[in-house]
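Reopening: structure tokens for the zinc ion complex, inputs below.
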Amino acid sequence: MRFDAVPRPDAVGARPRDARGYPVPAITPWVGEEPRFALTDHGRSAECARERLCSVCGTLMPRGPVWRVVGATEAGAVGAALAAGLPYRNMAPTSEGPGHRACMLYAAMVCPYLARPNARRGVGAEHPDELTSHVVRGTARGALGAVVGFAEYEFAVTANRTLFRFLDVLEFLPYDTSDTLLAELRAELARGGQERR
Ligand SMILES: [Zn+2]
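Re-run output (same inputs, fresh job):
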């Protein structure tokens, strides 16, 4: 699916665009007119964490669950924990911040690296369409990813990074291709998406 054919949450539609029309996530740094999708802006990331702003659209996340997109390894760990009836927690903190359910469903669909099984994160122009590279930075992409809802997040702002930990899995939406997320995204937007949760 082309990125501009994927239904967009309103707050994502209001984001600044790059030259190709891709919405630029809230935590992406800019150098002049150029967004640097592969990087996370420390100040923006810390502000999102402190003020409970979505890392994709930059607007408030209501109290309650938050979502993120995880890669194959973590999706496997979450799935295994749920199957065993055990709590899951990412014990190694991540610099990937949380977002609205609609925003993370959208991000999982629009980023080609997230959306294609076995796609791997490239450098430079090889995979230029990485709206959500912050979500997957440093993660090898396997045959499966997942959009995961958590009860809450914790964070710590260090000198040069903001680190997150996510608590209590509430929702687990594994996918093999992002098209399987389209129905969820449409339903979420029809329910009011980011406004409601
Ligand atoms: Zn959002």
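Residues 3-195 form one domain. The mean pLDDT is 82. Marking as resolved unless the reporter disagrees.
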